[in-house]
Amino acid sequence: MTVQGRNEAPYCRQMLLHGVRVLDLTQYLSGPSATRMLAELGADVIKVEYGPRGDPSRTLPFVAGDSSSYYTQQNRGKRSVCIDLSSTQGCGLVRELAGKCDVIVENFGPGVLERRGLAWEHLKSDNESAIMASISAFGKTGPLSHLQGFDLMGQALSGMMHLTGDRDGPPQFTGSPIADCAAGFMLFGAIGHALFHRERTGEGQHVEVTLVDPLFAMHSIAVQGHSATSGEWSQERSGRQFSIVVPSGTYQGPEGWIVLQVLEPQWPRLCEAMGQEALATDSRFSSAEARIANADELLALVEKWMQTFESDASILNHLEANRIPAAPVLSPEQAMRHPHFVERGMVRTVNDPSFGDITVTGLPARFSSAPQSENEPAVPVLGEHNREVLREVLSLPEAEIAELANNGVLMTQEK
Fold first, then answer.
1. Per-residue pLDDT tens digits for 18-49
2. Which domains does the chain possess?
3. Which position among 151, 180, 213, 312 bears the catalytic label?
4. What is the rounded radius of gyration, in angstroms, for the C-alpha atoms of the chain?
5. Are the CB atoms for 133 and 194 separated by under 8 Å?
6. What Cα–Cα distance (Å) separates residue 351 from each residue in 40, 46, 94, 266, 393?
7. pLDDT of 285-331, one tens digit each?
8. Does the annotation mark 66 as catalytic?
9. How far apart are CA 361 and CA 335, in angstroms?
10. Which InterPro entries does the annotation name (predicted)?
């Protein structure tokens, strides 16, 4: 489905998703993060916001005017249409837009779209080649499918929260909403595969991702390890030590925290770097099993060695020279100023109507055949593109658009 009149350019200059039109029915984080990446790859993303206040993330920290920096990061580069979804006319308008789009993305709770006549079974009858992509807490099937949920439910039920925190402390959630982010990233990739399938077959389909499934799939050893040992082994919280690969973990340096990743090939090299070659053959540490059994003692030895340096940088340089993978533990503020993230385009500056210039995160993928965006995408004002989208996509006359606005079906920031 070709988007007429937008992003016109010679083929060699087109973005990867040039010509793909996306109807974004999502709010908060999980869904908007997926559609934001689609927009960064050149898709025309039409964000439907629900009148009168729009996406609830406009009220999340940090707020200025009628929007927030939270909204800015996930919704730049989209076109905003604000519609009253409590009205039959508003739902009908959304259904018409869906019939003209390649991809429809939603993250509503159970039953919401069904009650409004906007579920997959309704939309596919209008547009058989459309791809509908859904994020929910627990999916459309299974004993938990009727429940609502947010990020923390995904972290808890997946088993990830059980593994996070100090050994003798309570389970903890991560500092960033990893279930929301993982679901958004997973849906972003799944949409690409569904588009590829449609390119080959012409067939649309419903793609579904949950908050809990991606995190459960991230278990690298807990699931298979428990099964392989017939239930005799279970992964538990281990604090700042990586419990199954010792002495990998987090260490206090003279200035801050340093993380090491020491696998079997690196262990003798670390002993040599520490000037304590005898540790490699010491019976307490000579095997992976022995190092796990004596992890606390080994952590203390490594940390004591680090305290002999004057700076964290000198430790990191020494470890690098000995081919030991290590890194400083940066705060988000330090990371956003790090030249590596700046060079790779992960630190972006956009102009927000309320904040002015604001720093946001970039797209975590680079494509050799796709042009890099020369201009940062704009952040939409609520309902800014009502008339533009309805004229362009549905070919509605000005008089009808004005009537929809007068009847409260279409809304803007001012109304």
1. 999 999 999 999 999 999 999 999 999 999 99
2. 11-217+350-411 (3.40.50.10540), 239-252+257-328 (3.30.1540.10)
3. 180
4. 25
5. yes
6. 15, 19, 29, 46, 27
7. 999 999 999 999 999 999 999 999 999 999 999 999 999 999 999 99
8. no
9. 11
10. CoA-transferase_III_domain, CoA-Trfase_fam_III, CoA-Trfase_III_dom3_sf, CoA-Trfase_III_dom_1_sf
